[in-house]
Amino acid sequence: MYNLPNFVHQHFDKTAEELGEIEKRVLKKAHERKIVSTDINAAFSAEASTGERLADGIARVGGSWSFILAFLAFLVVWCVVNTIVLMTRAFDPYPFIFLNLVLSMLAAIQAPIIMMSQNRQAERDRFEAAKDYEVNLKAELEVLSLHQKIDLHVLTELSAVREEIAKLNRLVAQKNGI
């Protein structure tokens, strides 16, 4: 695989055939010197269907303070209109049975939409974790590769220094007549 069997064995303690798809993809990208990281928001949003985007929007609005305050104002207006303004001809007199029906229908529709959005958020979190793993794995492989290069360079330099010391020792021994 990519002429890296020793590299795979050294860093993964498994054979190339035992590697998972993510590891193979990261190794290929590392070998080709390509970037693994992506914009997670853009990548995840690109895969979203219209219904999923709509569910996310509804959950975003339904969980905001502006929605809560607007809905509270709606409830107050409903109650005031049906108790004070229309005392004799209220379309939903106290105890507001029609309002209860409307609230129940809203809850029946809003709850599954919010659950869809939460499931999508969990899916997004898993997607983000997988991307983080890929980036971290590639970074770790690059660091290990740099360590190997530095170690090889240091060993080469050390070997050259030893040779120079040996030459100097021979010269000193010749000069002293040993």
Automatic annotation (TrEMBL):
InterPro entries: DUF1003 (IPR010406). Keywords: Membrane, Transmembrane, Transmembrane helix. Pfam families: DUF1003 (PF06210). It comes from the Bacteria. The chain crosses the membrane at residues 67-88, 94-116. PANTHER family: INTEGRAL MEMBRANE PROTEIN-RELATED, MEMBRANE PROTEIN. This is Putative membrane protein.
